[in-house]
Design goal:
Layout lengths: L13 E9 L3 H11 L4 H9 L6 H17 L8 E19 L5 E17 L5
Antiparallel strand pairs: 1-3, 2-3
């Protein structure tokens, strides 16, 4: 029998990919996500390829995954896709300690992030 399948949360002309536990702070990842929001997929891929940010490589892999989902799972036209949403969320935080003067210790926090990419197919202009 099993569980009943849930309805699709996205519209028919949308596809999504989620990249979880990226080893970068949400604040830094949001700078890269902001760079591609609202842009066509080809343009976003090119900007991520030549970006100087370290995390741009992982964001590019996530965007490729979203494009593949759109093409293979939802039969969307790849040439008309654009990045409708690029949202960044907090993930876990690793706590580490480093020694300081006079026998004290200071906490170092290593942040992780989630990235959610939603691609939408542009309507044809006649």
């Amino acid at each position: 029998m099993g569980k009943p399948s849930t309805e699709r949360r996205l519209a028919d002309e949308e596809a999504m990919a989620v990249v979880r536990n990226l080893r970068v702070s949400p604040r830094k990842l949001n700078l890269v996500a902001q760079m591609i929001r609202g842009k066509r997929c080809e343009r976003a891929m090119a900007e991520l390829q030549f970006s100087q940010k370290r995390i741009a490589h992982d964001v590019r892999k996530g965007l490729q995954s979203a494009i593949a989902n759109a093409e293979n799972n939802h039969q969307l036209d790849v040439d008309r896709l654009y990045v409708a949403e690029a949202t960044v969320g907090k993930a876990m935080v690793m706590k580490r300690f480093t020694p300081r003067a006079r026998g004290r210790a200071a906490r170092i926090e290593k942040f992780f992030s989630h990235l959610r990419l939603v691609l939408r197919e542009r309507a044809e202009v006649e």
